[in-house]
Amino acid sequence: MTEAHGSTATPEDERSDELGVDEIPPGGGNRRRRRAQAEKPDPKKKGIFARLALFYRQVVAELRKVVWPTRNELITYTTVVIVFCLIIIGIVYALDLGFSKAALEVFG
User: How many domains are contained in the chain?
Assistant: First the structure.
């Protein structure tokens, strides 16, 4: 930014000074025009129900692409998760028991 008070310099102005006049990026420099274009309603925009229906159709299409596990795979995955959780529970229980015994010995 500039140090002068009341300056009308914008970040695009400084960037154009850094890049040079020939190197100004396309569309750079006029934020108000871009903001006004972004706020205009799109005449092709669909209504809320049409957008919800499109969303629903897209969700169904994506779910059809999913490779669902077979019953045997599901049982195997579930068993692995339960065994892993039991092992972690055992480790945490052993550590908790050990630390509580140690704290009891130290602090009486």
Answer: 1
